[in-house]
Design a protein that fits this description.
This protein has 195 residues and is mainly alpha-helical. The two termini are 38 Å apart.
Length: 195
């Protein structure tokens, strides 16, 4: 259902008929119907696809419905669902602004492997809202596979001095970032991302 819905939205061939030059409102209606069927069947990707399709659809945007489907997606364990809820709560869109709840959603999304959520935790100034320091959030994101967070930690350690301990710590963060796909860090270590 999700794949067929994406084919409607992306104007690809559906049932042997090539889509129109631009996506039409009826294409989006068919796509959403298919996403809804997938969501009702317990597929988190279907719930998230539905939420995404109604959240950022210009003047036809329906944030209330996007919020509802993001909650369904979160219940099914979807990293994008947690991330979208973090956005809703951080911005106070259709819910009371609650930075602590937003941080919790971003952290859960990061834990589930969303690099965007990990970056959000490390790059956003949440002082005053989050008892954890920016470095603690970055360390958590690094541990959960965010090369961006590992790289930031390495840079912070490098800027604080050149003691042997700091060099070893910098190298450790650079190694983690490289192993998570940061080509610049691999190059700095003299490695390739395949090693």
């Amino acid at each position: 259902c999700i794949t067929l819905g994406e084919r409607y939205v992306d104007e690809l061939e559906v049932d042997g008929v090539t889509g129109l030059p631009t996506t039409t409102p009826s294409d989006c209606v068919w796509a959403r119907a298919l996403y809804d069927v997938a969501c009702d069947a317990g597929n988190a990707r279907g719930c998230e696809a539905f939420a995404r399709s109604v959240h950022h659809s210009g003047p036809r945007s329906k944030p209330d419905i996007a919020l509802e489907y993001s909650h369904k997606s979160r219940t099914l364990g979807s990293a994008p669902g947690f991330y979208r809820l973090g956005d809703f709560y951080l911005g106070g869109t259709r819910v009371a602004r609650d930075a602590a709840a937003a941080i919790g959603y971003f952290q859960r999304s990061c834990d589930l492997g969303s690099d965007a959520a990990c970056q959000r935790l490390t790059g956003y100034d949440l002082s005053g809202f989050d008892p954890a320091s920016k470095q603690e959030r970055a360390l958590r994101a690094c541990v959960h596979g965010s090369w961006y967070a590992c790289r930031n930690l390495r840079d912070e350690v490098r800027d604080k001095g050149s003691y042997a301990h700091n060099r070893a710590l910098r190298r450790e963060f650079a190694t983690i970032a490289c192993e998570d796909g940061d080509k610049d860090m691999c190059q700095a270590l003299g490695r390739t991302t395949d090693e």
